[in-house]
Amino acid sequence: MSINLDQAQQTFIVEARELLLAMEESLLQLESEPGDQDAIGAVFRAAHTIKGSAGLFGLTPIVSFTHIVEDVLDRLREGSVSVDAELIALLLKSGDHMLELIDVVASRGEQLQAAALEREAALRQALQAYQAPAQAAAQPVQSETVSDIQAERLWHISLRFGVDVFRNGMDPLSFLRYLNTLGQMVQVTTVTDSIPTVEEWDPESCHLGFEIDFRSAAGHAAINEVFDFVREDCAVEITALDETAESTRTDLVSQDDTSPVIHSGELLGDQRAVPRGPAQVSTERASPANEQKNKDGRYVRVNADKLDELINLVGELVIASAGASLLARSCNNAPLQEASSTVSGLVEEILDGALHLRMIPIGDTFNRFRRVVRDVSQELGKDIDLIISGAETELDKTVVEKIGDPLMHLLRNSMDHGIESAEARRASGKSAKGHLSLNAYHDSGSIVIEIADDGAGLNRERILEKAQERGLVASGAVLTDQEIYNLIFEPGFSTAEAVTNLSGRGVGMDVVKRNITLLRGTVDLDSQPGEGTIVRIRLPLTLAIINGFLVGIDQSTYVIPLDMVQECIELDEQDRQSSRDNGYLDLRGEVLPLVYLRDHFNHEGPPARRQNVVVVRYAEHKAGLVVDDLLGEFQTVIKPLGKLFGGLRGISGSTILGSGAVALILDIPALLNQIVQLEARSTQTPYSLSAAAR
Fold first, then answer.
1. Of 384-388, 576-580, 658-662, 664-668, which range is least confident?
2. To which H or E segment does residue 49 belong?
3. Where is the segment annotated Disordered (predicted)?
4. What distance in Å separates the CA atoms of residue 344 and residue 349, rounded to the nearest whole number?
5. Amino acid 267: pLDDT
6. How far is C-alpha 107 from the chain's CA centre?
7. Are residues 386 and 529 both part of a single domain?
8. Is 545 helix (H, G, I), strand (E, B) or coil?
9. Judging by DSSP bridges, how do beta strands 565-571 and 611-618 pair with one another?
10. Which of 515, 540, 565 delimits the end of a domain?
11. Which pTM value belongs to this model?
């Protein structure tokens, strides 16, 4: 069996980045609550784990720097160092540098730039000020000195690896290499007497053991920590030798090679060494740490590409299942139809399970912004508090990964332009501290993300003036407040008087909208002068497969996302005539604007004798889609449109029906917005589907 060290190192890189994120969150928690011992412990454990894992791979730069950070955190844990803003800032910068070192490992072959090396030197110097005097003095010295040797002790380590250590992806020699960084291995004897016969040989099993004489100034706990990551797969005994140990070892080494073999278990029996043979893992582990490890063992890491492949295969399975169901219905064979129905139900369960594999909470993304808000508010000289809610809301992993940058820009924009300085807030009767909130929740089959601030709000007149100067709005045009506010998403639009590191260059907000649109989402905002601004982003839960509702017009078939369908009604003769004349329907006293899909998509021929209205809702918008036929629900595998049709408005994709025909998926948000714009142009008056719907 060959151990895939590249894959193991890649796992280390992923886990180290996650640990650094957790370390950052705990440091920010510690900054707000300096006495939080749980946060201190979490930071220490993260640094210790990164150092230990890096040591196994021989990543000396990471081990060396993280060791200093760990020393400072250890003193913080002991209470020898107190928490203050300066220390938190230093530890956050140290975490940034640790991430930089990990990125160097991930890039394979790249070296730290000169500027990064200078930052590391400055960080080391600053960290040493928090170390114990003896530790700080020892850091610059790399070679052994006489005093170092005198302070060292001789240890004997008996080490037996379990038979499954190879299968669990461990390299026994990596632990010896890491051990050697703490001192000097005077002698290493490989114990091979437990190796089985050729007939019983299993190349995937480990039968190695080591007897090690080790000279080091490190204590028992530090040496023992070397084996933390293989604790469940080995048995280890560490013993401090007395003054006669050195002479005893020399006598044993000088014995004739032909002398009778004395088993290691007999040699070390008086020293309570481990028994001969492979280590047997105890079945009685009741400590909280082991219980937590057992819980963690129920989770596995899966490459995202494999999940994508699974979703694609499930999508093809859905299409094939729909075709089989259609064929079964056409055969008028009851047992076949029953079997087909059972298969369809199982396929639906497989689909739900596969989609849930890709769903992750958005809280991980939200929590990353705590550091951003902290740093930017300090740069701007503002006191801003970030409030997060709805962190447990789940959505597709692809959406989570791609929404990070747009959210980052919106947060920075709110802090720079939205929230006023402390002086301005006091003058307007507000508290000096500004508040910025991130919230996520589900609504009508979509996820809504809100970025809200309690700042000065948007200047309606200023935005309209700038838009008219740039020719985006004709002079004298009548626009609603929301239409004016949405002008800030136009390319190059900016009302900032000065360019800063954060904004004012006229780029970014249009990119935000474009990126959200690519995710089949929408973005709009509401603002109240003097009270603040709310930006709302609506995104689909998944980009792969949705529950759809099939409708027909002539021989064409369209799919409406089922989560947006509220109800379906049939138009009688009287309603057909009045709604055609007025453009809306009186639905139980509610004014419902109508969209005739036959006209919208230019279907020729006379209208059908029977017409139906599908009432759809998206956010606060509500309308009725007039169609010929209602064809029922359908598991819809979303297929992207080709480049030729990429700019087709009102259509978000396509799907393959069970019959093999292609159906177009309606983009309800874009379709409703398009109708609003057409109506506004024709009347030159403010118009809104949401207003009409109310």
1. 576-580
2. helix 37-56
3. 272-296
4. 9
5. 40
6. 20
7. yes
8. strand
9. antiparallel
10. 540
11. 0.69
